[in-house]
């Protein structure tokens, strides 16, 4: 199961509607750019080894988001949208 848990840092906040299937946006706070990457991660203290969370990233913020997750020891992999896993789902 993959989810996008960075919404609390998103410019959308809780009052704005979530991005639709044709409007996947970068998870970086303050960025409304179209996402091109799915960054998959896992917090081993609270998730099973095969569980994956996802953040979406535009090309400009991919490295920054990966760097943050690597520093925490959470980063697992980054894939282009359309290659989101066994089902190939693009929704977080």
TrEMBL record:
It comes from the Bacteria. Residues 1-27 are annotated as: Disordered. This is Acetone carboxylase.
């Amino acid at each position: 199961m993959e989810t996008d848990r960075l919404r609390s840092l998103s410019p959308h906040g809780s009052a704005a509607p979530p991005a639709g299937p044709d409007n996947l946006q970068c998870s970086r706070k303050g960025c409304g750019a179209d996402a091109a990457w799915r960054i998959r991660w896992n917090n081993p203290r609270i998730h099973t080894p095969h569980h994956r969370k996802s953040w979406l990233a535009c090309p400009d913020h991919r490295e920054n988001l990966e760097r943050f997750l690597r520093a925490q020891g959470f980063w697992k992999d980054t894939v282009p949208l359309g290659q989101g896993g066994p089902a190939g789902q693009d929704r977080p």
